[in-house]
Amino acid sequence: MIATHTGGRAPQDRGKALYPFSGLRLKSPSPESEISSLESGVRRKAYIQSTTDYRHPASGNRNPASALSSGGARILDLPSSLTGGLCFAQSCLPLVCLVGMFFSAATCGAAAQPEDQRLVSARTRMVDEEIVAAGVRDDRVIDSMRKTPRHLFVPESQRHLAYLDAGLPIGESQTISSPYVVAKMTEQLEPRPQDKVLEIGTGSGYQAAVLSSLVADVYTIEIVEPLGRKAADTLKKLGYTNVHTRIGDGFLGWEEKAPFDKIIVTCSPERVPPALVAQLREGGRMVIPLGTRFQQSLCLMKKSGGKLQTEVIESTFFVPMTGQAEAIRQTKNDTGLPELVNGSFEAALAGGTPSGWYYLRQASVVEDPKAPDGKAALQFSNTTAGRNSQALQSMAVDGRKVRDIDVSLWIKMDQVRKGQSNEHSPRLELVFFDAQRAPVGSSVLGPWRGSGGWTKKRMRAKVPEQARLMGIAVGLFGGTGQLTIDNLAVEAHYAQQP
After folding, report:
1. 177 has catalytic annotation
2. What's the pTM?
3. Out of 80, 91, 144, 177, which one is annotated catalytic?
4. How many domains does the chain have?
5. 159 lies in which domain range?
């Protein structure tokens, strides 16, 4: 049996435009296929070898942050074209967030030792090309992102990937958010030097470190004890003296330190925890991802008259909030079956971006009367070879239940070409992750080049038995031209009946 998820328009009983999904239908498999698969570990090795010799001029921006050494980990000066979601699409790095955002009188920062100039250069380029270029404008936030040593907040095995704009696993089934997401969320907070900020979800401590130089005090809570203790140790060694850590359930906030001027939540509950509403100062701001396990909206909340006013910023993907938030979660998404959202791109947020899709770069919804499904399509456009253009979505897939995944979509191309290398090629890619969010395999549909009207493309991908999460990435990925897609669908072939 095959279950097809077309990601079409939202049925009314779903309750939120964030979850447009047309449900299941039975369909016979098609033998037509375009597929190229490689184990992610092989790709990662090839990627590292291909970037080892790349060098980029130093910008002169430095941060005296080397209280912790790189521990002998391999440090790469990475080309800009391989940062961002592209690293997900090449499987050199999982989407963890696939996946799935800044000076005060307090003493903060790290011990005064010179930092490796290659790291400074890589971090500066990442900020310029993946954060500033993506629309972050707050100069204080940008400066903090340039100075905060992200490589010291990730495991040694991941440090050579620290200045890719992507999430990284940090252990305990948790991740460090991508630098863009950290910058975006921090900017939305509008941090001020006198602010007292509460962070829910310390993780590695990176977000708290970024906030440290921007506000008076940061109070941060982590429910996973090993992570919380490790983050506290890292922050202490690096000299972030205005960051105060605690092990506990963030759903309950930190009542004895309330009220807070700003609250930032780096894990996703279904709804705003009441304690956080009560602990936010009148006129304060809260940035929080809300939604189900795989479909969330990044929201800005402003407290006025004791109530929260909500603005949806964009679709996003975070690890779910655990503890009490998980105990009362109504939508569990525990079937292990993939559910693609908004594959017709008819449902859009206020800013014109497609709901359900996130980490968009140089992509927008356009009207097309000849679109295969409805009147809207998603268009990627890029004129600079190597610059990223993409969209991502993640969903559950249990390799014990699902044997294969059929993926299909319609594409239209206008002078589509590869970028600086074959890796910079327009395509669609699936990446599979296990329960610890480590990559376990990938499949590629493409590459696509040339010009032409609407054409259907499809492939069948084998699902690794250990897979529990699947990410879809589609776009130009450093290629140039104009690529338009529509009617993207996934079909699950069951290894056993659901």
Report:
1. yes
2. 0.74
3. 177
4. 2
5. 101-318
